Amino acid sequence: MRPFFVMSLLFGLAFGQTASLCAPSEYTIHVEKRECAYCLAINTTICAGFCMTRDSNGKKLLLKSALSQNVCTYKEMLYQTALIPGCPHHAVPYYSYPVALSCKCGKCNTDYSDCVRERVRTNYCTKPQKLCTV
User: Fold this and answer.
1) What angle do CA 98, 117, 121 make, to 5 degrees?
2) How far apart are CA 131 and CA 129, in angstroms?
3) Which domains does the chain have, with CATH numbers?
4) Where is the Glycoprotein hormone subunit beta domain (predicted)?
5) What is the SS3 assignment for 43-108?
6) pLDDT digits (tens, 9 = 90+) for 92-129
7) Which residues touch 54 (CB under 8 Å, ≥6 apart)?
8) How far apart are CA 60 and CA 79, in angstroms?
């Protein structure tokens, strides 16, 4: 029984990266514009979850390739556009948002992600709410 346990442990350590829990997750975005009468609650999917990382206290002793700081990020995504109700004719009533189709553990792409830290924002409506399910 002991050799089986040791082999299982080694297998888990060697292939732990493939068992990362990074996947599309349901998320609600609340969008409102000052000119518009309503707040729009949009149901979408974002990438969220855990990715294995390797970081060492001895960074100066190791090659950069030995260090890994992966995040859960988009592998495939598309953009949807929603119409915010109650906007006057002079206001642009459209809002575009990403929809995660699949996710991966990888380097953070600053073209479409905030890679530094999570912004402190409130995700609620201050105006009457309309639900958008696209």
Assistant:
1) 65
2) 7
3) 18-131 (2.10.90.10)
4) 21-125
5) EEEEEEEECCCECCCCCCCCCHHHCECCEEEEEEEEEEEEECCCCCCCCCCEEEEEEEEEEEEECC
6) 999 999 999 999 998 877 776 666 655 555 567 777 77
7) 66, 67, 68
8) 41
